[in-house]
């Protein structure tokens, strides 16, 4: 997640957002609202809707373009989206300034339940990790980010930021 602003906005840090606008995508979006607002609250003690105004742009692309066109002071956006927009030539590095970059967090995980037969778990894993992206929509969408395959992640390490976000939003997961 990154927080961007337009050149000349006078915003050089997250703290400068006090009393200003920070655009998000929608209240129900993890990457477009829940994650950034939780991170901002936990790292900077600033609360969305209290310390800064929170317009909702609908999509990450709308948030980015809204900042570039100075409709919003700043926006919290998925850095993978801005990378794809630059690769398509929709925007350039000179159109915006990054004032904050969070730790990377996974966006779309796939997994197996703990009680699935181990042989079937291995077959599911093999299907993902041996899938050839060449010529697929996945390749077209994600190769600009340097992503060209599914990768294994470790819950303890790579999911820490997701647990922080869930905790900040009062979300708990109970397994019966």
Brief characterization of the structure:
The protein has 176 residues and is an alpha+beta fold. It is 36% helix and 9% strand.
Shape: flat
Average pLDDT number: 88
Classified by CATH, the class of the largest domain is Alpha Beta
Treating each run of at least 4 consecutive H or I residues as one helix, how many helices?
Answer: 7
Q: Give the CATH H-level superfamily of the largest domain.
A: Periplasmic binding protein-like II
The biggest beta sheet reads: 4 strands, mixed
The helix fraction, in percent, is 25-40%
Give me the CATH architecture of the largest domain, please: 3-Layer(aba) Sandwich
Question: Could you give the order of the helices and strands?
Answer: EEHHEHEHHHH
Note the beta-strand portion.
Answer: 5-15%
User: What is the count of β-strands?
Assistant: 4
Descriptive report:
The structure is a single chain. This protein has 176 residues and is α+β, with helices and mostly antiparallel strands. The chain folds into 2 domains: 2-101, D-Maltodextrin-Binding Protein, domain 2 (3-Layer(aba) Sandwich); 118-168, no CATH class. It has 7 helices and 4 strands. A 4-stranded mixed sheet has the order 2-3-1-4. Helix 1 packs across helix 7. It is flat.
